[in-house]
Amino acid sequence: MDALRHTFEQRLAAALPGVDITLERPKSGELGDLAFPCFRAGKQLGKNPVQLSQELAASIAIEGAQLVAAGPYLNLKLTAETRAKAVLGAILEAAPERPYGFRPANGKKVIVEYSSPNIAKLFTIGHLRSTMIGHALAQTHQALGYDVIRLNHLGDWGTQFGTLLAAYTRWAQDGNADLERDFDWAEPAPDKRRTPLFRLFQLYVRFHAEEENDPAMRDEARGWFKRLEAGDAEARRLWSWFREISLKEFQRIYDRLGVSFDTLAQGEAFYEDRLVPTMQRLEDAGLLVEGDKGARIINLEDVGISTPCLVQKGDGTSIYATRDLAAALYRKEAYGFDRCLYVVGTDQVLHFQQIFAVLDKLDPWFKGRMLHTPFGMVKLPEGKMSTRKGNVIFLEDVLDEARERVAAIIDEKNPELADKAEVAEMLGMGAVVFFDAMNDRVKPITFTWDRVIALDGDTGPYVQYAHARIMSVLRKAGGDWAAKAQPGACVGPVVPFEPAALPADLVGLEAPEAQALLFELAGLPGAMTAVVEGCMATPLARQLVAVARSFSGYYTNCPILAPENTPTVRDARLALCVATARALRQGLFLMGIQAPEEM
Ligand code: ARG
């Protein structure tokens, strides 16, 4: 397909010297494979775009394709066989270091910062968004040839640790919540409600509840944070212990989600000894101004941001923004990136506007490199989720519930299935993760169990089902057909398929349903590019649904293993099955979803 695109671009460039050639994808494969909209060229040349497209259709010729003028569009429509060769060729030649859609020689360095939970809190359904959007962005960037660094700006420093220290020292030793004594720390607790982290979380919630009626407690919490920043031994000891038990718990969840980071050691606390030099740089640049009660602020009115950026509180302690500034400066030094993406909720839009504006003032190098990709918050039907108030939906509860619902269906419909538990986990996860991706990134999501764990319609399990159905056809076909669609052990960002040979003759794929499937498969690289450009997994999720749906049409209308098929037709149709299975598996994998062989 790339070669044909290139030829088309060259012919257009030759016919239209000096005109910018940008190709699009037509709405359906019946219209064609590539479209050249003639509006801009028409304007530039002072010609009616409809007339221009007709002239071009008459004057350009490309072997294996037809050029069709459709109003102001010039469409390139491949013949059935050329389309099959181009699409199947691209998918089947993909190799571990060259996945389908890969663009060589990009080499740009991108930092994707995602997940970034606060320690001593539990993972909620809200954290799934940052984690899985970020994971899909990291995966897809890497599959497209970017050099990717995956960072987690763990919330392991800040005033909330004052709260936690105050709560812990107040109550934890009262016999009923002696965390250090009650738990065997080496063993992960079987019941998640009894994990040490959950107990810490309860203390945190209790503190916030009681603090409402006792404002003095607020000072107590502040005092503890000051002690922590000042290096007080007891505060440090407890803090690092809180951190350790949190990390253990997070790691368990990341393992379950199949998500990993280059390091978990670059959380907020990592920047502690870089805060003074950062403040010094701000001072030297003449940006610091005295704010209320001795606080230090940076005015941003001149760049259209009316709220100043607070970088130091009156009591001399650092804040969230200070640590983000230090982190950005560090990342420039350590990685020298081209882009740094922050996958963080819409509630922090102002924060990142401020941070980026300060960085621009400090060092023009940052201009245009920093990008906040906000996502909509998950709400409950009754309102906002709040860890402080304790009304949250825990991520693990959602994943467990999804797995159980799937298991019940498997028990009913396919009780003989091998690896039932494993498949139920993959499908449950597929439902939850895919649901998230199908939502517009920035709109808020209202959580209800039935929406988030939907198994019918445009869901992960629907796509997973298409894949499993193909695998079953390939197994039935015998020979090495199934093996051609099976990857080696998954390492790196994509499913490592070995290149497979294309059948010599691709006949038997002329039916509109086969052509429609080829057209949707050809849309996957563009969907991957759209993920990177729009910083969301939605285009990929949608394209996978389109592929799965058109596979269903193909399967119904083009018998694959029918005895009357000639061997040539059978091989061509099986090759299309292999390519579809590979493409679905790769796409799901980029989103962090596994594709079972059978379900
Ligand atoms: N820990 C923060 C929170 O839970 C998110 C951190 C986002 N990243 C950043 N560089 N500020 O709200």
From TrEMBL:
Domain (Arginyl tRNA synthetase N-terminal) ranges: 2-78
Enzyme class: ligase
Keywords in alphabetical order: Aminoacyl-tRNA synthetase, ATP-binding, Cytoplasm, Ligase, Nucleotide-binding, Protein biosynthesis
Segments forming domain DALR anticodon binding: 463-599
Primary location class: cytoplasm
NCBIfam families: argS (TIGR00456)
Descriptive protein name: Arginine--tRNA ligase
Lineage, uppermost ranks: Bacteria, Pseudomonadati, Acidobacteriota, Holophagae, Holophagales
